[in-house]
Write a structure and sequence with these properties.
The structure is a single chain. It contains 34 helices and 30 strands. By secondary structure, it is of the alpha+beta class. The protein folds into 7 domains: 166 residues, Trna Endonuclease, Chain: A, domain 1, CATH 3.40.1350.10; 91 residues, Arc Repressor Mutant, subunit A (Orthogonal Bundle); 56 residues, SH3 type barrels; 75 residues, no CATH class; 73 residues; 196 residues, Nucleotidyltransferase, domain 5 (2-Layer Sandwich), CATH 3.30.420.10; 108 residues, no CATH class. The C terminus is likely disordered. Helix 17 packs across helix 18 and helix 26 runs parallel beside helix 32. This is Transposase InsO. One of its GO terms (biological process) is DNA integration.
């Protein structure tokens, strides 16, 4: 970001008016005017900008996020701000109506020599808006969109206003920028001089060497070194040409001049005779080559021809210019185009043929095969005419397609009169009634709509012979059934289950991410098993499981279990476990729209470690199908094999006391989490995954690290400082050190002896608090985090944030005055927590918090203590035998299982 002096100097260079400078300062000093929210079909999120030093919001990961990447890597861009303050536009529509309204552009961008607003929209949306508001959205001569009213408003300041569409995105470049993001973000990574010389000498010796060959033959050189040199532009690769993940297609050069020379040499291999012998047919869909780049003919007019580049850009040429370029050999047809078209056409014909069609064609081929070898056809035979027809069709197909077999392949299902028997006006009338009467929110029945249809036909004088039957009417309705019909009748949520489901194979979004830790999902589910307290044996209910899953390898990076419903605490803990196991965080994290994923603490932690956060569209669970399917796998492979699982609860009428999961539960949270980690990290990890082409998640993960770099320069040390950074802070994140009292955190004072320093008193310091222990907090003093003790440490020690919230709510209920709210003070809250009247209210939460300590033991690599209710009590032999006789077989098995003295524990980490 620009300093005040740099900003003033920049304003002087551009000779901006005082009014313009005030407008810019207003934008720079203002927070985003609104928080973006996702609709039913867009992915929102936050991008951690190094250029701006803060998180930038985006409303679509296919429009605004790619634009943010361009701004981030454009050296001409000095600053940019998301959701700048709104301003009012006024203009007159074509109908003569005067309109006035406020708009909030997506970005305010400061360039070296210009400044202004940018609005990002999808191309198809702009086309729709142009039809609706023809004077607000205008497509210019060079396929550049304009907004005349907004441009007129910007001109008063000397600014620009630009409409930017996704048609301008080079998706290959965007994908490569994402791939290299870890190398752009690190300033500490260095390539040794010897390694740099080795890599550059290999490229100099073989200009145009593919990235795959360099990675394969560069012994002693890590993939991280190569990718770092590419990101640092010490190795030249055209990032707009091919994705780096497709290493066999990426050509490497020492600099751009070598690439230009290399391309010129390759193109010069064609001779003049060869060029002129290649005629180019002006047919839409044909691919031609111009300077080595592919162009597709999209439209042929009377005087002009339109061509489209691989980046979806439109090029317009006159027919005379196109012919001249063909004669000069600058435009040639693709040598593989004709073959590809023929092969595609052949495959289409084969797909349309039924099994009887193929059997009949094979019979005809066997009959004509002798005559294809040159034998004469016998005359005066019953099959003579048929043989001659088949031979002629065979030879015609051989010339047309290259495959004579297609000439004798007949499609029986296309024979006969397949035209509709009903008149077209009757069919149109049926469609009208289905659309206007059946496909509505009233959800009328089929019979009711058909009755209205028949009544209308009689009233309009249509002959009874032409009125279709109810069966025909139903068939027409079924032809239109599916997503669109359900959407019109039952709404978006009901129609979602019928929405076509497909993995995105386009370059706009890689299917599973491009490398390990590229795209990861976080989601929660309630475990299908009832658990008991390890101290009292009381049934505490079902725990919540949180998973962090790598989309590239389907590997479970971290798993966390807690009795508390999903909250920012679960999110922070699963990220803490990920760093403990792998020493890093994902590049992009995808979540749903639950409130815990909008937590300030969660967003701050991701911004601190430069992780992009994406929120999937509301009510679109398939966007997180990686996690959703894994939850099902966890149930079938793990939870359903344990005593106390809740499968039977899905059949409530069949559940009796003997099979009630609450009566059969034996597992505690600590032991369940221990074995859940064992299953997730050691068993599921090595099983072949059906979505990974027969490989296990661990194999795909390891291969991805080897090919796409370990990226160790992005490692995060799992130490006390990181653990404190994963703790929440206050709304202001800072607190003032008050002499003799300390810092105030969540309405409670915390003290440390470091606060006695006169230089520390009355200063503001960063603070954090432990949600699982309200007795302590942390303050960042003189470059280090120090532990602070609560003024009522004995009362708050070991009590969780959740328990205190429950107690606060209960205390307010007891002390509340209906006229005004009651303010809870720390001393009153502490005394209330220590009183007997609250014991029963908080008992269950306190037991659950105690069980959470066993989970923390497992996270740190320890084994939970033996559950007392599973130990053999000191009773006489007769009582012990009665107890064994009354136990079910499954209970005895699980008692054996949870006994650490009789079980071999495998190392988890």
């Amino acid at each position: 970001m620009l300093s005040d002096d740099e900003f003033n100097q920049w304003c002087c260079c551009l000779k901006l008016s005082e009014k313009a400078q005030q407008e810019i300062q207003h934008v720079r000093s203002s927070a985003p005017s609104r928080r973006v929210r996702g609709a039913h079909n867009n992915v929102t999120g936050r991008y951690p900008s190094r250029k701006m030093g803060l998180s930038i919001q985006f409303e679509s990961h296919k429009v605004e996020l790619p634009f943010i990447y361009q701004l981030e890597h454009d050296k001409d861009v000095l600053e940019y701000y998301d959701q700048p303050p709104s301003f009012k536009l006024s203009y007159q529509e074509a109908s003569g109506r005067n309109l006035g309204f406020y708009i909030t552009p997506d970005f305010f961008v400061i360039h070296t020599n210009s400044v202004g607003w940018v609005e990002c929209k999808p191309e198809d949306k702009l086309n729709q808006l142009a039809k609706k508001s023809s004077r607000r959205y205008v497509l210019g001569d060079e396929n550049q969109w304009h907004s005349p009213p907004a441009e007129q408003y910007a001109q008063q300041f000397g600014f620009f206003f630009r409409l930017w569409s996704n048609a301008e995105i080079n998706w290959t470049l965007h994908r490569n920028l994402e791939f290299l993001a870890d190398y752009y973000k690190s300033n500490a990574f260095e390539v040794t001089k010897a390694t740099r010389n080795t890599i550059l000498s290999m490229i100099s010796a073989q200009p145009g060497i593919t990235l795959a060959n360099l990675l394969h033959h560069s012994e002693g050189v890590s993939t991280d070194d190569i990718y770092h040199l590419i990101a640092n532009e010490e190795i030249y690769v055209n990032l707009t040409a091919s994705p780096l993940v497709e290493a066999e297609k990426c050509l490497l050069f020492v600099d751009q001049l070598y690439e230009e020379t290399y391309n010129a040499i390759i193109l010069s291999q064609s001779t003049t005779n060869t060029i002129h012998s290649l005629g180019v047919e002006l047919i839409p869909g044909i691919t031609v080559l111009y300077s080595g780049k592919s162009l597709t003919i999209t439209l042929v007019g009377e005087t002009e021809v339109l061509l489209q580049t691989s980046e979806q850009q439109i090029v317009t040429l006159t027919l005379s210019t196109f012919d001249e370029l063909v004669k000069q050999g600058k435009i040639t047809k693709s040598t593989t185009q004709k073959t590809d078209e023929i092969n595609n056409q052949v495959m289409d014909l084969f797909k349309k043929a039924s099994f009887p069609d193929l059997m009949a064609a094979n019979r005809r081929y066997r009959l004509i095969q002798p005559y294809l070898d040159g034998q004469p056809i016998k005359t005066n035979t019953p099959q003579e005419r048929s043989l001659r027809i088949w031979l002629r069709a065979y030879r015609q197909a051989q010339q047309k397609y290259g495959y004579g077999y297609l000439g004798i392949l007949h499609f029986e299902n296309k024979k006969g009169n397949r035209n509709r028997k009903l008149p077209q006006h009757i069919l149109n009338l049926i469609d009208k009634f289905i659309i206007e009467r059946y496909e509505t929110k009233k959800q009328k029945g089929k019979q009711s709509v058909y009755n209205e249809f028949v009544h209308f036909c009689v009233e309009t004088g249509i002959s009874e012979l032409q009125v279709p039957s109810y069966k025909t009417f139903i068939k027409e309705i079924k032809k239109r059934s599916g997503y669109e019909q359900t959407l019109k009748r039952e709404g978006l949520r009901s129609a979602y289950r019928l929405e076509p489901f497909y993995w995105e194979l386009e370059v706009t979004t890689p299917r599973h991410g491009d490398f390990p830790f590229h795209i990861c999902h976080i989601d929660h589910t309630e475990s299908d098993i009832e658990l008991r307290c390890s101290k009292t044996g009381k049934v505490l209910g079902r725990a919540w499981i949180t998973l962090l899953v790598d989309a590239f390898s389907r590997r479970i990076l971290a798993v966390y279990a807690s009795y508390d419903p999903p909250s920012y605490r679960s999110c922070m803990m699963v990220l803490r476990i990920c760093v403990k196991r792998y020493g890093r965080l994902p590049q992009t994290i995808v979540t749903d729209n639950a409130k815990e994923f909008y937590s300030t603490y969660f967003e701050t932690l991701l911004a601190l470690f430069e992780c992009t956060l994406k929120h999937r569209p509301s009510s679109k669970s398939r966007f997180s199908s990686v996690c959703e399917r894994l939850f099902g796998t966890t149930n079938t492979q793990f939870f359903y094999n344990l005593a106390g699982n809740t499968q039977i609860t899905k059949k409530v009428r069949l559940m009796t006391k003997s099979v009630n999961p609450k009566n059969l539960s034996l597992w505690t949270l600590g032991w369940l989490y221990l074995y859940l980690c064992e299953w997730a990290y050691s068993i599921y990890d090595i099983i072949e995954h059906p979505g990974l082409e027969g490989q296990s998640p661990r194999e795909v993960f390891s291969a991805g690290i080897a090919q796409y770099g370990s990226r160790d320069h992005r490692r995060i040390s799992y130490d006390e400082n990181f653990r404190i950074l994963t703790l929440p802070t206050t709304n202001k994140s800072r607190a003032k050190v008050q002499p003799g009292k300390g810092v105030k955190v969540e309405q409670k004072y915390y003290w440390s002896n470091t606060f006695r320093d006169p230089e520390i008193e009355n200063t503001s310091v960063d603070v954090r608090y432990d949600p699982f222990n309200a007795g302590i907090a942390y303050a960042y003093v003189q470059g280090q985090w120090v532990e602070c003790i609560s003024e009522y440490y004995s009362l708050f020690r070991g009590r969780s944030e959740k328990e205190i919230q429950i107690a606060t709510t209960q205390l307010k209920k007891q002390k509340q005055n209906h006229a005004s709210s009651y303010r809870i003070r720390a001393k009153q809250l502490g005394e209330f927590l220590a009183s007997l009247e609250v014991e029963e209210i908080l008992l269950e939460q306190r037991l659950r918090d105690k069980q959470a300590q066993e989970v923390f033991q497992v996270i740190e690599g320890e084994i939970p203590l033996l559950s007392p209710y599973n130990q053999t009590p000191n009773v006489d032999e007769e009582k012990e035998q009665d107890k064994l006789n009354s136990s079910t077989e499954s209970e005895l098995e699980v008692n054996e299982l949870v006994n650490p003295q009789k079980l071999k524990i495998f190392k988890i980490y």
